[in-house]
TrEMBL record:
Protein name: protein O-GlcNAc transferase
Domain O-GlcNAc transferase C-terminal, chain residue ranges per copy: 357-509, 533-704, 967-1137, 1156-1330
PANTHER family the UniProt entry points to: PROTEIN O-GLCNAC TRANSFERASE (PTHR44835:SF1), UDP-N-ACETYLGLUCOSAMINE--PEPTIDE N-ACETYLGLUCOSAMINYLTRANSFERASE SPINDLY-RELATED (PTHR44835)
Enzyme class: transferase
Family: Belongs to the glycosyltransferase 41 family. O-GlcNAc transferase subfamily.
Pathway: Protein modification; protein glycosylation
Compositionally biased spans, kind Basic and acidic residues: 739-751
Pfam family, one: TPR_12
Residue ranges of the region described as Disordered: 737-769, 1366-1394
Keyword line: Glycosyltransferase, Repeat, TPR repeat, Transferase
EC number, as in UniProt: 2.4.1.255
Biased amino acid composition, Low complexity: 1378-1394
Provenance organism: Paraburkholderia monticola
GO terms assigned for molecular function: protein O-acetylglucosaminyltransferase activity
UniProt lineage: Bacteria, Pseudomonadati, Pseudomonadota, Betaproteobacteria, Burkholderiales
Amino acid sequence: MSTRSFQTAAPELEQQLEQDIAVVMQAAFEHHRRQEFDQAASHYTAILEAIHDHAGAHYHLGLLLVQTGRSAEAWPHFEIALGREPNNGEYWVGYINALIESGQNEAARAACELAQQLGVCEPALATLLALMPAGNTRRASTEELNEHAALFSKGEIEASLKIALRLTTHYPSHGECWRALALSLQRLGQYAESVPAAEHAVRLLPDDLVSHMLLASGLCAIADWPRAEAVCREALKQFPRYAELHRMLANSLTATHRYTESIDSCRRAAALAPGHADIYGTLGTALLGHGQNEEAETAFRRALELTPMDASAYTALLHCLMHKVDRDMAMFRAEAGEFAKRHETPLRAQWPRHENPRDPSRRLRIGFVSGDLVDHPVTSFLLPAVEHLARDNSLSLHFYSNNPASDSVTAQIRGHADGWREVFGLADSALAQQIRADGIDILIDLAGHSGRTRLAAFAHKPAPVQVSWIGNPATTGLAAIDYYLSDRFVTPLAQFADKFSEKLVFLPALAPFRAPENAPPVNELPASRNGFLTFGSFSRMSKIGPAVVALWARVLREVPDARLVIGSISGQDEMNKLSAQFAAEGIDAARLGFLPRKGMLDYLEQHHQIDVCLDAFPFGGSTTTLQALWMGIPTVTLPGDSMASRSSTGWLSLLGLDAPFVAQDKDDYVRKCVALAADIEALAILRRELRPHCAQSPVFSAKPVADAASRALRIMWQRWCDGLPAEHFDATSPVLAESAERAADPQREPDTPVAHAVPPAKSDGRRASAKEMREYTDLFGKGKFEAALKIAHRLTKRYPSHGECWLALACALQRVGQHIEFASAAERAATLLPGTLSAQTLLADALRITRQFERAETHCREALERHPESAALHHSLGGVLQSMGRHAESIACFRRAVALTPDNALAHDALGVALLEYGEREEAESALRQALALAPTQAQVHSNLLFCLMHKNGLDAASALAQYREFATRHEAPLRARWPKHANDRNPSRRLKIGFVSGDLFNHPIAYFLLSIVEYLARDTSLALHFYSNHTVSDGYAEQIRAHAQGWHPASGISDAALAEKIRGDGIDILIDLSGHTGRNRLVTFAHKPAPVQVSWIGNPSTTGLTAIDYYLSDRFVTPLEQFAGQFSEKLVFLPALAPFKPHPHAPDVNALPALKNGFITFGSFSKMLKIGPEVIALWARVLREVPHSRMVIGAIVAPEQIGKVSALFASEGIDGNRISFLPRAGMAAYLEQHHQIDVCLDAFPFAGSTTTMHALWMGVPTVTLPGVSMASRGSTGWLSHLGIDEAFVARDEDDFVSKCVALAADPDALAMVRRELRAHCAQSSLISADSIADGASRALRTMWQRWCDGLEPTHFEVAAHGANAPTQPVAARESDTQPAAGPTAAAATSSETANDVPAAIKPIRFVCGTRCSREQFWNETALGRTLKPYANQPDVQLQLFANNTRGLSSIYNEAIEHAKQDPAILVFIHDDIWLSDFFWKLRVRRSLTRFDVVGLAGNLRRVPHQPSWAFVTPDLRWDERRYLSGTVGHGKGFPCHEISNFGPAAQECKLLDGLLLIADSETLASRDVRFDEQFKFHFYDMDFCREAELKGLRMGTWPLSVVHESGGAFGSPGWREGYERYLRKYGS
C-alpha cells in the first residue's frame, strides 16, 4: 500500500490538495490535447510525485508514452492504474494496446482473456484481439492501409509514420506496408531512414513503380549518386516511359559531372512530360554545369512559366543569371525584386510581432540556415568562424540543416551547436514557425539564391533580425532580410548600396578561409624550369563562356610561348568543347592542357603545374582563388558591377595584391598578364612568400573576422532593441566595436584606445609645410569639405607624426559626417598634441558624437587635470554629462565655463539649454537672455530663447508674438531690401521643385513624421523633391528619405547667404522649413527669401515670426483660425491633420485596463522634465488628492536628481511618496510596453505632448490635456479632437481638468472599453493616413503656387480629405473651426451660395431609409431606429425617413439625392433592419469616402456574365470564390450577433456592392449624374446602381464597419426573379 504524504494533514488541506490536483490535471489534459507532450508529461509526473498511485495520471501518462513511440515504458503505468481500478475498461484497452505496440503479443492476448474473465465490457477488446498477429505471412487489411493513407493525405505525417511502423512490425512481408513507411519517412525529411524501407518495398513489390521511385528519390536526397543511377537505370528497364525516372537519372549524372548524358536524359524526360516543371529545372542545372548558359536560362524560365510560384525555380534562374555576361545589375536587382514580390509580398501582412526580449545585453540566440552543412565550400568559411563564435558566451548557436546528408564536417559544426534541427522537407511556413518557437533573435541565411536555399522561410520573417552571409554573392531581394555581411573590398558601399535590398555590414574580411589540411608544400615556379609561363584555371564550366575564352585567347596571343591548363574537367566532351572554342580564336590545341576533377589533395597538387591563374567573369572565383593563393599562385581578375565578379578582387585587395592582379578592363587584364610573363623572377619571389603572407592576413585568420561578426550581430541587435531600422555599418572599426561590446558587457574593461588601431608611425620629424596646410585651410574655409578631406588624408599619410595633419583630418571628417573615422583621427591628434586644447576638445566632441560617453568623460577629466582653467573643456564635459542624463553635474560644468569666460555667449547659451532640460525654466530664460545680450546677432541663441519661452507659463499670446517679431527685426529686416525678384516660371500647372530644409533628417521624431509623407509625395509626378540636410549624421531614416529625393544637398557648415544662393540656383519653387526655432534650424537662410513661396511645417509648434515665410501648415483643431490668425506671421493652411502618425511596427498589444486588476487607477506621464514645472505638479497633485487611492507613474526621467526634484515637489503638495513611482527611459518597444502600467495619461502645460500622446493612444491610453493660448499647448488637443474624444479628455480649465480625471476614475468600465477600442479607432482615423495628409499637402502646395503665379498675397485656406481633385477651402467665413456644424446649411465652408464646396469631413451624415413602419414604430421597434436614438440630438447625424413606405427603394433614394443638391450631405442608403454596432461608425463613414466614391459593407471584386447577385455567380445561386469577395456582415437579432459572415478582406475596390448599406457623397452623385434606375424597386437596384457608378467613373469599395443584419435576402422569390429578368433584359449577359 502506498503512503500518501497528506494522510495526516487536516481535512481542509486534503481538500486543497484535491483541488490543486484537479487544476494540474486539467492543464495536463490541455497540453496533451494540443500535442505538447513534454509539458503534459511534466504535469502528469508532478501529480504522481504528490500521489504515487493516482490512477488517472498513470493512465494518461501511459497513453502519452504510446503516442510518442515509447510503448515499452507505457505498460507499467497502465498496470498501476488497473491496480487502483481493475474494472476500468479504458485502462484495459490502453494496457493491451501498449503490450501490442511493444511486441508483447502473448502478454496482450493473456491480458484480453483476463479482462473478459473480470467481466470488463469494452467493445475495443475484441478489436484488439483481432489485431494481434498470427504469423509473418499476414497482410495488412485495406482498412489499415487506408488509415495510413487518410492521415498522410491530411498532412498528419507523424501520425501516419506511427501507423506505418506498426504495420511493418505486424506485417513484415507485406510490401505495401514498407512502401507506406518509406513514403512517410520521406515526407518527414528522413531520407536516409527511408532507403532501407524503400529497398524492402522494391524487393517485395518488384513491379511497383512507386516503390522504385521512393528508393531512387531517397538515394538522390542523401547524395548516394552511384546507387541512385543504378536504381534509376534498373527501374527504367521496366518503366521506360516514366519521365520522373529519367529526371532522377539526370540528377545523378549531373552530380557526377556527366553533363552530356544528363542533358540527354532530361531531354528524354521533357519529351515524355513536356508540362513537368522539375524536368526543365534539372535540364537547366545540367546545361549550366556544361557551360551552355543561354540554353540553361531558357530552361529555367520555362520551369518558372510552368510553376510561377515555385521559389526554388526562381532561385535557380537567379543563380543562372549571375553567370550572364551581358546582364546588368539593374536587371538582376529587378529579377530579385520579382522573386520578393512573388514569395515575400503576400506574406508581409502576416509578419509576426516578435516577442523577443528587447534587452541589448542579454545572450542572443543565433540561428544559421543552410543546406550545405557538409564538406562544401560554404563550410570551409563557416566552420572556422563557428569555432570562434562558439567561445563567445554572449551567443547561443543554433543550426537548421536543410540537407538529409551528413559527414564529418557536419559532426564538427554540430559539436559547437547549442541546438540542431534537421529541416529538409519541412514546409517553409512550418520551418518559420519552428524558428519562432525556438526564440531565435538573429537568423542567418547561408545559401542565398543557391541550391537547398530556404529563402521562402526567411520571407515569413521568423526572427526579429535576419542576415545573409557567405552562401551566395548577391542580394536576396527580400525586405525580410535586414543585413548582408561582406567586406569593403568585395562590395564597396558607394558602388553596392543600391544593389542590395539588405544593408551592407563590413567585416575585416568577407569570411575567414581555412587553409586545406595537409596541403602540399608550395613548389618552385614552373616557369623557372619550363622556360615559359603556364596560365591556369580551376573555374567550373558554367563560368567559362565564350567571352571568357576570347579574353584568355588574347592573353595567349600576347604571350606567344605561354600555355593554358584548365582543371576540374569532367569528361572528354568538355575538353572538346573548350578546344573548339580556343581553335575558333586561333589558339593551337597543343598550347592547352586539361586536368581531371580530383580529390582535394590531388587537386591542390595540380597547382604545381601553374604559374598564374586566370579568373573567369562575370562570375569570378572565390574558394578556388584562395586555394590557389595558398599554393603560391596569384590570380589575375576582372571585376565587374556585380558582387559575384569581385570575390577574387576582395581577397587580393585584403592581401595588398590588387595593384598587379586586379584589372580595370579587358585591355588591362591582358597587359597585367603580359607584365607577369615578362618578370618571372618577381613571380618566383611572390610564389615563395605568398603562403606565409596569407597566413598572417585576416583572410586566413578566423579570430578577427569572427570577433567582428560577433560585434556586428550585437550592433544589429542593439538597433532592433532601440526600434531603429537596419543601417549600413562597418564592424571593423574599433570605435563602433567598443560601443557595441559595452552594450553586451557593461562590466567589460576598456579595450586598447582607438589610436592604437592606427599603426604607430616612426617619429621621423617631418612636418607639413605652411603652404600644404594652407591648401587644406583654404578649401575648408570655402566649405569644400570633400576636397579638404582628400588633402588631409594625403597629409597624414605623408606626415604620420604631425599632429596638426591629424587635427585637420579630424575636422574634415567631422564636417562630412564620417563620425567613426572622425573619432579615430581625433584620438590620433590628441595623442600627438597633448598640450593643444583644440585637439583635446575635438576628441571629447568625437567621443560624445559616437556615444562613447564614459570614455569621453574620462578624457575630459584627464585633460582638465592638465588644463583646469579651460572653459572649453568644462563646456565639453558638460555636454557629455548632459548626454548621459546627469543634468545636475552638467549644469555645474556649464556654470564653471561661464565663470571662466563670462563674456562668452555660447557658454551662457549652453547653460541655458541645460537648465531648460532640467526644468529650471526661469533660470534658463535668464541665462539665454544673457547669451543674447552678449551676441545679439546670433540667430541660434535667439531661437533657443524663443524655444525656452514656449515653456513659460502665463505668457500671453501678444507678448509671445512680439518676441518672435523681434527675431525677425534682428535677423530678417536687414535683408529685406536685398530680397531677389524671383524668375521662376509662373506656370501654375508645371512640375514644381519643392525644397525641404531640416537638421533632423535622421532617426528623429521629425523624420518619423516626414518619411511617410515623403513616400507619398514622391509618387506625385507634379512634384520634384529636394532636401537640404543641416546635419552631418546620416542613418537609415536619412537613406529612406534620400531614396525619394530628386536632389539631396548637405547644408551643414554652409553660411546662410551661401545656402540661400544655392537654393535659388537650384530653382526651388516652394521651400519648406521643418525646424522652426529648434536646434539646427536655418531660419536666417529663409530670411534671405531664396524661394518665391516659403512654408513652415512640423518642426516647431509656433510661428517663426518671419514675413519671408508665407504659410504655416497645420490643422483646424491644433490652430483654430479665429484664435490663431493673429498669433502667426504666416498664413495658416489647414490639412486633414497636422501630420501623419506612424505606429511603431513592434508596438506591443494593448493590455487590459490595469485598474480592473489593481483596484485603483494609475495616472501617468511621459513628458520630458523641461515640461514638468511646479504648476504642472500642483495640478497633478490636485488630481491625486481628489482621487485618493490613485497612483502616479512618471516615465522618461532618468537622473536621480530629477527624480528627487519631482518627488520633493509632490511632497510639498502633500502627496505621499509611496503614491509616486518612476520608470526609466527605455528603447521604443519597452517604452511602449510601460504603458501597460497606466490607465490614463496626464498632460503637461503650457507645452503639451504630441508624439507621446499618440504613442499612448496607440497603446489604448487616453490623455487628459489642458490647452492654453499657444499652439504648443494644443498638440494633444489636436489628436484627441481628430479622434472625436475631445469632450471626455480636453479640459476647459484646471478645475475641469481635475473633474475629468475624477469622472474617469469613477467609471473604470468605460475606460476599459475605450482602451479596448482605441487602437482600432486610431487605425481608421486620418491621423494614421499618410496618403490623405500627403494628398492634402500636395494640393495645398499647388494652391500656394497658383496664388503666387496670379500675383495674389498669401491667405488662410483649408484642404480637406476629399479625394484627389477636391478644391481647397477658404476658411475666413467659417463660423467655428472647433464646434460641429449646427445643421446641413451651417456646414457650408464660405456661404450658402457655395454649397458645392462643402468638404465631406464636415458635412452631416444623412441616413436615407424606407420603412413599412410608422415613424413611432421605426424609433421603437426597428434595429436602425433603436441604433440611431442616442444620436438624435447630434447635429452632424441626420435621418431622411420614408415612413409607411410603399414606393420602391430606387424612387426614394433618388428623391434623397435630389434633396441633397440644395442641402449637401454624406448619404447612407440603408435598410431598417440593420444594427450599427460600431461605436466609431461616424469616423469610419467619413474615412471610407477618402478612399472610395461609393462604399458598401460587402462586395465582389469582379462581375461575370449572368451574375444574379453580388455574391452569387450562377443563376442557381452558387457562391463566387472567396478570393473575389470582400467585407464582413454580422447576422442575428441585436448585438452581439449570432453569426458573422467574413466574406474576405475589407477596403478592397469592387465591381459590385451589397445594397443593404451604401455610402456616397451627395455632391459626387450629383456631379457625375448617378441615379438609381426606378424600374428596380426592391431587387437588383444595387446591382444596377453599381454598373451605373462604374460607367460614370466612380470608385467603389468595401469598408470595415460593424453591423448586424436581422434578415437574409429574398433570393428566388417571384419578385426577385422578375427583377433578375429585368436586369438581364437591360444588360444582356
